[in-house]
Design brief:
Chain lengths: 423, 327
C-alpha cells in the first residue's frame, strides 16, 4: 500500500529543497521523492506546500493532573490540526514529571492515546522546587529529551549551575524559563502605560532579561547547552545574540504571540491575553523579528498552555497564565513574519521543523528517503477566520478567535497516517 | 456603548471613568445638586422615593467604612432597600467564582450591585455577564469612579463659589495629586476625570510611588513638592498606605513627611486660593498635617457630604434611565 502526495511544492530546509516535487509514502516512511510519482492512493497537493511535520518543543498537555484542561489525546489532536507531528511536553503536571516512572507514564499514555509523536521533557529539580537535582540519567533512559523546570526559573544560581553541569554530563539540554520572581512579584502583565492605566502590577522586561543573561552565563560556566524558551523582549534577543557571538552553547525560541500581539491586547482585562512572559511592546516585536531574521532565534514554539473557561473567567490578577497556540502557530508565522517579508517561507518552515528538532536532538523535522513520513500540507495563501471549532484542544483560551489569518494547514500525516485533514 | 448625549444616560453600569465621555461626567455632576438639596432639607425628611422597592447590594471584598456608608446612605435616601455582603477573599481563595456569587445575589432580584474588590477589573468581569447595574466602588489599583466624580463635583462647586460664576467648568484648573499614586485607584480615576474635564494634572510623590509610566496618561510628573504646588488650584493629598512601608517603597515616614507632607510650610508654595482635598481616611500629621486638614482651605468634609449626593445621582441615573435591567 503506497500513498503518493502529488502536485505540491516541497519545502525541506535540511536538504534545501524548495520546488514542485511529489512524495511516495509506504509503511510510514518516505520511499521516494521525485516527479510524476504514483501510488495506490493519492493526495492532490495542488496549491499546497508540502513540508516536514512541524515540531513544537514547548507544549503543555496537562496530563497527569489537569485533565480538565487538556490530555495527551486532545493535545495531540490540537497539534495535528496545526500541522505539528512532534511535540515536547513540559513537566509541570501534577505530579510533575521528576522521576523515570512518570516519564514512562507519559510515553505510555502517548503511545496509547496520541495521534502524533509526544516526547516528554522532565523536571530538572525534584518537584520543581529548585533545590535537589532529578535523576537525569534515568530520566533520559526513560525517554526524556530535555530537562526543564518550565513554569518556574531556578532561583538559586548555584543550583542552576549544578543542574546545567549535570544535564550536560547526561547529554540533555536545559530548557530555560527565565523569570526573576522577586522583581516580577505579583505582576500580571507587561509593565508599561497599559498596566499603569489598568492598575495591574507589572512585569518589566528586566524580569526576563536578567535571568536570560544569568542562565546563559551559568551555562557557559558549566559548558552546557542551554535553550532559552519563549523570548518576549528585544533585550532578551540581544543578550542571546551577544552570547552566541562569544561562543556560548545557547539556542533560543520565541512564540507567535510575541510577534503578533502587544500589551494593548489585554484591553479591558482579557485573561486570554495573559501569559508569561507577557505581551510586550511594538519595539519588542521588532526585536524578536530581527532575532529570526539574523538567526539569533533558532526555532518557533508555542508554549501551548490550555486552561478552561472556568479557570480563565475570573479576576485578571488571579487568572492563570497561558494561551493555547498549536492550531494557530503556522498561520501567525505566515501572517506576521512571511507575508510582510520579514522571513521567507522556507525560513519559516525551518524555524518550525528542524530548528526545534535540533535543540532537543529529536531526529525529526526533515523529509528524506527512508525517513518517517511526518508531513504537513498547508495552503500558504488561504485566509481563514479563527473560531472555536478550529481547535482540537480541550480548551479554547486563545486571543485569536475572530481574527482572520493567512496560511492554513490542510492535512497532517504522522508516520504516513493521515491524522488531520480538512474537507 | 455609544456616547451619551448631553442629558441622557445610556449605560447599564458605572465601572470606570476611563470609558466615559465628558458629557456623561458632566451629566452626573449636573444631576448631583438636587440630591445635595435632599440631604439639606429643612423639613428633616432627607429622602426621595426614586428607588423605592429596588434592592441595592453593597458587596465589599475589602474593608471599607466610609465608601460603604456613603453608598448605603445614598441608597436609603433614594428609598431603596439595602443589603450588605461582606466578603474578604478573592474567588480563587474562596472557591466560588465572582460570577456564581453574583448570580446568586441576582436570583434574589437585586437591582444595583455596588462592588469593591482587591483585583483590578473585577467589576468589568461582572458587568459584561450580568443584567444588574454594577457600580465600581474601587477595584484594586484601577478605578474608583464615584470618588473621582465627587471630587470633580467638589472642585467645581468651590471654583464656582470662588469665581462667582455658576457656569464655570474645570477647563484649565490645575490639580496637584500628591503621594502614593502607584497604588491609588483614586488617583487613576481622578486623572481620567480631570483630563476629560480639561483640567491639568500634576502628580508628585517619591519616585517609587509615582512611576514614570504615568506620564503616558497625559499628566505632569515631578518629585518636587514645591514644583507641584506652585500655581496649583487644588492640592489633592492621597492616603499613605502604611503597609507599603513594609515593602520598603520609601525609607521612613520621617523622610516622607520631610519631603512630601502637606502642611503649613509646604502649602506656602501654593497660591492662597488653593483648596486642600483628601479622599480619606487621613493619617493625621503623616501625609497631611492637622492644622491644614482642619483649616480653612480644607474641603475634605465637603467631599464626604458631596459623596452621598453624587452616589445618589449615579444610582438614580443607572436605575431610572440606564440601559439594561428595569425594575
Amino acid at each position: 500500500m503506497t500513498l503518493a502526495i502529488i502536485n505540491g511544492h516541497l519545502i525541506d530546509p535540511v536538504s534545501g529543497l524548495s520546488e514542485p516535487l511529489d512524495l511516495l509514502v509506504a509503511d510510514g516512511l518516505v520511499v521516494e521523492i521525485g516527479k510524476g510519482l504514483k501510488g495506490d492512493e493519492t493526495i492532490d497537493a495542488t496549491g499546497l506546500v508540502v513540508c516536514p511535520g512541524l515540531v513544537d518543543i514547548q507544549v503543555h498537555f496537562r496530563e497527569p493532573g489537569f485533565e480538565s484542561k487538556e490530555t495527551i489525546a486532545t493535545g495531540s489532536r490540537a497539534a495535528a490540526r496545526g500541522g505539528v507531528t512532534t511535540v515536547v511536553t513540559m513537566a509541570n503536571t501534577n505530579p510533575p514529571i521528576d522521576n523515570a516512572g512518570l516519564v514512562e507514564l507519559v510515553t505510555r499514555r502517548a503511545r496509547e492515546t496520541a495521534c502524533i509523536k509526544v516526547r516528554p521533557a522532565a523536571c530538572a529539580t525534584k518537584a520543581m522546587k529548585g533545590e535537589e537535582l532529578t535523576e537525569m540519567s534515568e530520566l533520559r533512559e526513560a525517554g526524556a529529551v530535555a530537562v526543564t523546570d518550565d513554569g518556574r526559573d531556578i532561583r538559586s544560581s548555584s543550583v542552576m549551575r549544578r543542574v546545567l553541569e549535570y544535564a550536560n554530563m547526561v547529554g540533555l539540554p536545559y530548557l530555560a524559563h527565565c523569570q526573576d520572581e522577586d522583581l516580577g512579584e505579583g505582576g500580571a502583565m507587561h509593565e508599561g502605560a497599559v498596566s499603569t492605566n489598568l492598575g495591574i502590577p507589572g512585569i518589566p522586561r528586566e524580569v526576563e532579561d536578567i535571568r536570560i543573561d544569568r542562565n546563559i552565563r551559568l551555562a557557559e560556566l558549566a559548558g552546557a547547552h542551554i535553550h532559552i524558551q519563549h523570548i518576549s523582549t528585544g533585550g532578551g534577543v540581544e543578550i542571546v545574540r551577544q552570547a552566541k557571538r562569544r561562543g556560548a552553547r545557547v539556542t533560543a525560541e520565541s512564540a507567535p504571540h510575541y510577534w503578533s500581539l502587544t500589551d494593548e491586547a489585554v484591553g479591558v482585562f482579557d485573561t486570554n491575553a495573559k501569559m508569561f512572559p507577557p505581551l510586550r511592546s511594538r519595539a519588542d516585536i521588532e526585536g524578536v523579528i530581527e532575532g529570526f531574521r539574523d538567526g539569533t532565534l533558532d526555532n518557533i514554539a508555542t508554549d501551548h498552555a490550555p486552561h478552561t473557561w472556568t479557570d480563565k473567567n475570573i479576576e485578571f490578577q488571579v487568572a492563570p497564565f497561558g494561551i493555547i497556540g498549536l492550531e494557530t502557530s503556522l498561520a501567525l508565522t505566515i501572517t506576521h513574519l512571511v507575508k510582510p517579508g520579514h522571513i521567507t517561507l522556507e525560513k519559516a518552515v525551518e524555524l518550525m521543523t528542524i530548528g526545534g528538532s535540533r535543540v532537543c536532538s529529536l531526529g525529526v523535522g526533515e523529509i528524506k528517503v527512508g525517513g518517517a513520513a511526518d508531513i504537513c500540507l498547508f495552503d500558504p495563501n488561504e485566509q481563514w477566520t479563527v473560531s472555536r471549532e478550529d481547535f482540537g484542544s480541550k480548551s479554547s483560551n486563545s486571543p485569536y478567535i475572530g481574527q482572520t489569518l493567512t496560511g492554513r494547514v490542510r492535512c497532517t500525516l504522522c508516520d504516513g497516517k493521515v491524522v488531520h485533514q480538512l474537507g | 456603548m455609544g456616547e451619551a448625549s448631553r442629558n441622557v444616560w445610556t449605560r447599564k453600569d458605572l465601572i470606570g471613568i476611563a470609558g466615559l465621555s465628558r458629557q456623561e461626567i458632566e451629566l452626573v455632576l449636573d444631576t448631583a445638586p438636587q440630591f445635595v438639596a435632599v440631604s439639606q432639607r429643612s423639613s428633616g425628611i432627607k429622602k426621595v422615593p426614586l428607588l423605592q422597592g429596588r434592592l441595592v447590594v453593597n458587596w465589599f471584598h475589602e474593608p471599607s467604612t466610609r465608601t460603604r456608608t456613603s453608598f448605603e446612605l445614598a441608597a436609603k435616601r433614594l428609598s431603596a432597600d439595602t443589603l450588605a455582603i461582606a466578603a474578604s477573599s478573592s474567588s480563587s481563595v474562596k472557591g466560588e467564582t465572582l460570577h456564581d456569587t453574583l448570580a446568586n445575589i441576582e436570583a434574589m432580584s437585586a437591582d444595583i450591585i455596588v462592588i469593591r474588590h482587591s483585583c483590578a477589573g473585577a467589576p468589568h468581569l461582572l458587568a459584561a455577564g450580568h443584567a444588574s447595574h454594577i457600580i465600581n466602588a474601587g477595584d484594586g489599583r484601577h478605578e474608583h469612579p464615584t470618588q473621582a466624580l465627587l471630587d470633580a463635583f467638589t472642585m467645581r462647586e468651590n471654583l464656582r463659589q470662588r469665581t462667582g460664576n455658576n457656569e464655570a467648568t474645570l477647563d484649565g484648573l490645575r490639580v496637584a495629586i500628591i503621594g502614593d499614586v502607584e497604588h491609588s485607584r483614586v488617583a487613576r480615576s481622578n486623572i481620567h476625570a480631570l483630563n476629560k474635564l480639561g483640567a491639568q494634572v500634576t502628580l508628585c510623590g517619591p519616585a517609587t510611588l509615582v512611576p514614570r509610566d504615568f506620564a503616558a496618561m497625559g499628566v505632569r510628573v515631578t518629585t518636587s513638592l514645591k514644583e507641584a504646588l506652585e500655581d496649583t488650584d487644588v492640592v489633592y493629598s492621597l492616603r499613605i498606605q502604611l503597609e507599603r512601608q513594609a515593602k520598603a517603597l520609601f525609607p521612613s515616614l520621617r523622610e516622607y513627611i520631610k519631603l512630601f507632607r502637606i502642611d503649613a510650610d509646604s502649602l506656602r508654595y501654593a497660591p492662597d486660593h488653593a483648596i486642600v482635598m483628601h479622599p480619606g481616611p487621613i493619617n493625621r500629621d503623616l501625609e497631611l498635617s492637622t492644622d491644614v486638614a482642619d483649616g480653612p482651605r480644607s474641603v475634605i468634609l465637603q467631599q464626604v457630604t458631596n459623596g452621598v449626593a453624587v452616589r445618589m445621582a449615579v444610582m438614580h441615573l443607572l436605575a431610572n434611565s440606564g440601559a439594561g435591567r428595569t425594575a
